[in-house]
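Lab meeting notes turned into a lecture example. A postdoc, R.K., suggested we walk through two folding results consecutively so the class can see how the record format repeats. The first protein's sequence and structure tokens come next.
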Amino acid sequence: MPLSRNPNTHRAILHLAIPNLVSNVTVPLLGAIDLAMVGRLNSLESMGAISLGAMIFNFMYWSLGFLRMGTCGFTAQAFGAGKQEETVLTLFRSLILALGGALFLLVLQGIILRLALLWAQPDPALTEAVSEYFRIRIWEAPATISAFAFAGWFIGRQDSRTPMWVAISINLTNILANYLFIFVFDFGFKGAAMGTVVAQYTGLLLNTGFALWHLREPGGQRGKTATELTENQESTVKQSAVKRPLQRIPFRNIWQIAVFKRFLNINSDIFLRTLIIIFVFSFFTAQSTHFGSEYLVLNTLLYQFFIFYSYAMDGFAHAAEALSGRFTGSGEWERKRATVKAVFLWGIGIASAFCLVYALAFNGIFRIFTQDARILELSGDYYFWILGVVLSGFPAFLWDGIYAGSLATKPMLLTMAVAALGFFGAYFLFRGSLHNHSMWLAMLLFLSLRGLCMSLMARRIVLYPKKISHHES
């Protein structure tokens, strides 16, 4: 039976994708919880501080999110090859990089805050409130950035449930801590920042505990059945049964120059790719204001349709990343190719489902966000762009995961650069004739080019590559 039709393949995908999807949905909840509780203070200044402050942190952490993807790829390949010591070393390398990034933010926090305020230009009263919120929340940086490393490590080890439970725990802690600091201890909006810091360090403790739990058994294969292990992994487990993992890890190898250099190169590729994405989407928002405030609101609300869809597709992209890396590391190329086919079947199904829901219920969903008559009237001319973005976007999401798991990050960066050129070319070429529609045409082209370019390169780079060892650079 072809593996793409094998229920075990689909079960493995769903086993990783569904917890990832739940984890993704919890991401915006931290900011939403802060806003909801501070909103009860009936202070516009407090609401503004939370909104602008959350935007600054979202921007910073999004740019550092590359750490999850890079860690997952290295871990999954080492896991697939049965090299458990290497998976642990990968975690430590990633945590070193995470703490370095956190130290960078802490040292330069004053400059970062000034630049953010210069860009946003809030009024003086809001400036002081945002500054207070920022100076408290910035101390969550070590815990928050380390969470990217832990999440990538867990997913690379084919465990997406642990990051899900950690994310849920962080949000529950955030709710309780916010309530205590805002309403019981009467810290006002600053209590929201304190609550978030407490929640993130709770997540750090949980991540550390779960990581140690993962390594309790010889070989680090806790929770895996014999049928789920490759021959390489079974052999590694048997050979290492006399020692526990942490006792036999050659920690001096963390600093092997060649390996650490490659780790940095891979993560720098993903970082630059992420910066391009941030620039494109920031440009999309900024340029929307040039067509008038009603179009800024319209595009912001339409973008929410894309966000909902991206949460679902990201869950499957993360599953593709973990499985792609695992089968690359183990050299099981037929299983990898079959998994790619299966993941794309799920992608087609999810994209089709979203298109159907959006086509049938677009107006009803849009009215949840606004009752403004002018915005509602304008939205009727744009729903077909949302359908186009959904259909054109899923290959880009899924290939991102597959390429990242394969550690094929240079092609990912090149593809993103080409797609960005297409985005800006389409916008500047058509903005005069298509007005605001040019923004959505550019976005459609951006997503389509990413998917198309990676599809054209996939056979040579990730499906039938000449270099089949994850040790090769």
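The second example is placed directly after the first for contrast:
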Amino acid sequence: MQQLSGMDASFLYFETRNAPTHIGSFGIYDQSTAPGGKVTFKGILANVERRLHLARCFRQKLVHVPMDLDHPYWVEDPEFDLEFHVRHIALPQPGDWRQLCIQLARIHSRPLDLSKPLWEMYVIGGLDNVEGVPSGSFAVLTKIHHAAIDGVSGAELAAAVHDLEVVGSPPPPEKEWLPEPDPSVLDLASNYASSLIRDPLRFARTVRRVAPGVTNLLRGSPDVDIENSGPVPRTRFNGTVSAHRAVEARVFSLDDIRSIRKLVPGATVNDVVLAVCSGALRKYLRAHGELPKESLVAMAPISVRSDEEKGEAGNKISAMSVTLFSDEADPVERLRKVHEGTKESKATAEAVGARTMTDITQFLPGALSGLAARMYTRLGLANRIHPFLNTVITNVPGPQIPLYFTGARIVALHGMGPVMDGMGLIHPVFSCSGKISIAVTACRKMMPDPGFYAECIQASFDQLNDAAGSSAVLPRAESTVATSG
């Protein structure tokens, strides 16, 4: 039995009916590389079963403390059923990219069953008319609750179910898996009583660590030169979200992204990604006659996972606020400003202490956090208070070598994320095998035309790519993205 951290539990407390807080990814696989040129669902089940010991979230379920007086616990589920979690569906004809995105959005919009281990995997066949995808390919959508993993541990989990060779052999388990009975109310009450004694002392130590950084930030430490990003403008993405989702993605060459960053000395791959998303948002909102005069602001998660914590599940993240300079028309100048802005944002995070801010969440009472989330939704405060951000842009680096799933070579890998009241648009960014995917998950009510937004991403990239004088976007046969409405 293991208790959730405050950060992990917060994703449970802030989940609502219209805003489930799981994250996900979907990969597209060419089964012609598998032995015999075919992958069966039975083979996929056997492959996943051999790897269940590689990630604790696969077989662990939640046990809640009565009245949410304390954070929940993970226990090994004695009723674990693999076939409940791994499912098989197929697209109807003609099986094109738009149909795939619609199906992915429908599945992603449904909450996970909180009485089971918090993940699901969907094998999707029928991808017969997705442009650039080899014949016979299939997709795999994986949903995992954010309480169980963050982006970095999610990438490590993805590595656990993939092989570096067509025929892979996962390492054997170190010990036999044993299920656990649910803890008694007495056990949970005893643990809670112990935490009442322990946590005040831990909280005092946390406050002592964070106080110097906050004080320097407020006083304007000479070592930290930070410019305020200004007020966050309200956009269509800053209201109450519906229960329906929209999904899209575009794929680019990582080499082209690296060429673009040379336009601005010192710029990073992440700076280019932020500039591309900024340009896309500018084009999209301008086309709808809704572009604010002020710059949009994004939240960019920061991993604070130490080397010793690699391989662990759960969340080890903080965040920084990034001005996107969507008010700047010139794409190269926008990239330069984004680069300068991210340096200031990183300085802010370092001044406060990113790791310390994650520690503070451990002391938030579960019942109070859940009540606050429900009141925020019921009162529609997202439509009434000033927005804190306009979107989330999260960049997770992945392996740059070919990967195989049950013998099928991965063709593309895209991310999916949660949206919530006040933030109806997220950009999960994945890099894998020399390519980088800029994906989109949005509230369908706020973005009824995701295909058009994907075209805006493409156009924003093309402007920077042309300025860099590099090669064009990946051929459609490699990008796995078809034109969609």
